[in-house]
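tool_call predict_complex ligand=zinc ion
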Amino acid sequence: MTGLPLLGLHVSPAGGLPKAVERGVERGCESIQIFTQSPRRWAPTNHTDESIAEFREALAASPIQSVVIHALYLSNAATPDPELREKSLTAITHSLRVGDAIGAAGVVLHPGSAKDGHVGEAIERCGDVFQEALAESENCPLLLEDTAGAGGTLGRSFEELAALLEVSGGHERIGFCLDSCHLLASGYDVRTEEALDGVLADADAQFGLDRLRCIHVNDSQTPLGSNRDRHAPLGTGEIGEVGIAAVVSEPRFAGLPVIFEGPGIEGKEPMPADMEIMRRLRDEGRSARGLA
Ligand SMILES: [Zn+2]
Ligand SMILES: [Zn+2]
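tool_result ok
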């Protein structure tokens, strides 16, 4: 795949997995992100073979070129509590297996939280959980997402993401998802093309951009280094139109799902109006780069 980042939205699979494809098509998506179970409940959703086959068929017939799954929010691979660890491992493994079944480009995961504990040990515990989950699934990559850095959340820096890769034995199915809102909040300036360039050079040095498999393009309500995860509608926040245009036109994101999670410009859920903003900003970014 050459050329352009695959712009898309987080869409709901309410009514069944195939519905997510339908919503993505209606909204003009080139890629989609979905939850394959309620993100705030442990109980996994049982997807029938029929529903999975229908999903794959609808996807193949659609212009959507890439699907990623966002894992549930409850898991904490870093926990020292054996019961929570077991539940987290089961949930992450289940998401990876659903990813295998639907042909997802990856499962995006918030790596975990050290709470008040020791960060190094928390990272070690994550590595064990990730390796076990990968061993219990086939092909689907596990994409660790950078965090805004609130509390003890792991993944606030490229050094921490690189450490998570290392404790996972450098597993070939470990990849990364960078979120522009979280980057800004954790102190990485992505507000201009030049600033983004420096951030990507840093990421490349720490874990290698060949491991980058997904981008979350969200604007931020809170400023650089605020360590708060508050998404804003595209172009309306601290990153602004110039920064968002730089992200959605970045040539190194060509072929990657570049997903807007919301809130949308017209309401909480991202809609076609948000896709229009992304396309306009991609065009503006490309012309600023002399690419169009
Ligand atoms: Zn995100
Ligand atoms: Zn976020």
